[in-house]
Design brief:
The chain is an alpha+beta fold. The protein is 39% helix and 12% strand. Strands 4-3-2-1-12-11-10-9 form an eight-stranded mixed beta sheet, with helices on both faces. A two-stranded antiparallel ribbon has the order 5-8.
Length: 513
């Protein structure tokens, strides 16, 4: 009996040994023998004892065919490998026809920008900066742009956005015209739908409503205001650049009331209250416009308006570089906010950089309604909104709960003769600007969230409107009793008799006269 138990233990130990996986192929002897015997029983070859070694080798090759092939590597599906495949095109040198010159290239000197911001402790790292630089080159080669600038990087919960600010040459922005035509087509479709609904209403007119919807603020035209520049984004260098749409005043108004993190997907919906009119691509473009209007600064005197048309240029938001600018000392720039100015137009509460009179525009479109309202009192003209003009110093910016919206500093206190002046935005954390002699730059690296200074309170939904006005004309009255009806009838008879008596007296007096 003991010998049987010992034999069983030995068999179990040997079976466990046979089922031990190999460290190289991850196979075990037990499964291999089972598959080999199954193959022999299925095929029943002649002289099986002579070809069993070859069959065993063929069986291993069929299982490990991809790994045993020494002519090619096993394809990897990791995220790093896929990203490397996408970024391979960045390092491929294009065909040089020799016609263009490097001086006229709109490609920015991102290495210089990264060098100065690195001294201030801001940047993406040298490796990522180089890949972003190559991605900008790819954008410049594929798009006919006049100027290109690396705007910054907006972080997201799943992936990030690299933002490039470009300005197309005049007459070569075919895509912009296409987008404007698409917008016009949408407006035409809406107009046709309205006309059809008006025809249906003319056949069977419903009760006329006294409700007047809030007029829609028209967006600013391309190359003006918040739509002055065009922005392209990509998630990683080497991935295709995607152009962001135009921004509308309604989107800016809603974006000021909500706080949302970016997901990294341009098609993701923006779930919020008040409802945001658009997806994440529109929300991203809106935040870029707000950040640019509040954080893009330059040294005073670098830009100036023309002497003849100074006021008009200030309204239109156009200026030019000052060729006589000689630079300001670093210590002076780091001590005073009066030497830093905004060179991007302020966004008004209306959601535009240039205020527009909606009542005037509506008055031009009204025909029949205007004729009906001619006899009514004219409404008071709204006061135009005004904001700080262009090239306003940072010292005039409003504080955030007794905190300055800007923090000027130098890049180094140990070697002041080689340091640069840096200013950091406290209103939009992640926005920086530097000045070194006649050179300056702006960059933003953050979550696209504005610092409020207080706890964020979501906008409460409005109270529900009353269903109907309460009054004696609508309120249901109780039926009178029999006694009340008799008393009312008697009172009416007495009133009628009194009226008859007064009429008889008046007739008698007239006869006497």
């Amino acid at each position: 009996m003991e010998s049987d138990k010992v034999r069983e233990r030995a068999v179990e130990s040997f079976k466990a040994f046979m089922m031990k996986n190999s460290t190289e192929t991850n196979l075990n002897m037990y499964d291999h023998l089972v598959q080999l015997l199954t193959k022999i029983m299925d095929e029943r070859p002649e002289n099986a004892v002579d070809v069993i070694e070859d069959m065993s080798l063929d069986l291993k090759r069929s299982i490990l065919q991809e790994k045993q092939d020494t002519l090619r590597d096993t394809p990897s599906s990791s995220a790093a490998f896929l990203l490397a495949e996408q970024q391979k095109s960045l390092f491929s040198q294009g065909v040089d026809d020799g016609d263009h010159e490097l001086v006229d290239s709109p490609l920015p000197n991102l290495a210089e920008l990264a060098f100065f911001f690195e001294q201030a402790g801001v940047g993406l790292g040298r490796e990522e900066t180089q890949r972003v630089f190559l991605a900008l080159k790819q954008l410049v080669d594929t798009q006919r742009v006049q100027r290109c600038r690396f705007w910054g990087k907006i972080l997201g919960t799943q992936s990030n956005y690299l933002v490039a600010e470009v300005e197309f040459r005049k007459g070569e922005a075919e895509e912009e015209e296409g987008m404007e035509e698409a917008c016009e087509d949408e407006e035409e479709e809406t107009d046709e739908a309205q006309n059809e609904s008006e025809m249906v209403e003319a056949a069977d007119p419903p009760p006329k409503s006294t409700y007047k919807p809030t007029p829609i603020v028209p967006r600013e035209e391309n190359h003006t205001g918040v739509n002055k520049f065009t922005y392209f984004v990509c998630q990683e260098p080497g991935m295709p650049w995607v152009r962001l749409p135009f921004v509308t005043p309604a989107q800016i108004t809603v974006a000021r009331q909500i706080r949302k993190f970016f997901t990294g997907s341009l098609d993701a919906p923006v779930v919020s209250y008040p409802p945001f009119p658009g997806n994440e691509a529109n929300y991203l473009r809106t935040q870029i416009a707000r950040i640019s209007a509040g954080t893009h600064v330059s040294p005073v005197g670098f830009y100036h308006f023309e002497e003849d048309e100074g006021e008009d240029e200030e309204v239109q938001g156009t200026f030019e570089e000052n060729p006589d600018f000689e630079g300001i000392h670093v210590n002076e720039m780091a001590e005073s906010l009066n030497l830093w100015v905004h060179h991007v137009q302020h966004i008004l509460k209306q959601g535009r950089c240039v205020w527009i009179n909606l009542t005037k525009n509506l008055g031009e479109d009204l025909d029949e309604d205007a004729e009906e309202e001619e006899h009514e009192e004219e409404a008071d003209e709204p006061e135009p909104e005004t904001g700080p003009p262009l090239l306003t110093p940072l010292s005039e910016d409003a504080n955030i709960n007794d905190t300055s919206p800007w923090s000027p500093m130098t890049s180094s206190n140990l070697i002041p003769q080689f340091c640069i002046a840096v200013v950091r935005s406290n209103l939009w954390p992640g926005a920086y600007a530097y000045v070194n002699g006649k050179k300056f730059g702006n960059i933003y690296i953050g979550w696209g969230m504005k610092y409020l200074g207080t706890a964020y309170t979501p906008v409460m939904p409005p109270e529900p409107q009353s269903e109907y006005p309460s009054g004696p004309e609508i309120t249901e009255a109780l039926d009178p009793t029999v006694e009340e009806e008799q008393a009312l009838k008697a009172a009416l008879e007495e009133q009628t008799a009194d009226l008859e008596d007064t009429e008889e007296l008046e007739d008698d007096e007239e006869d006497e006269d």
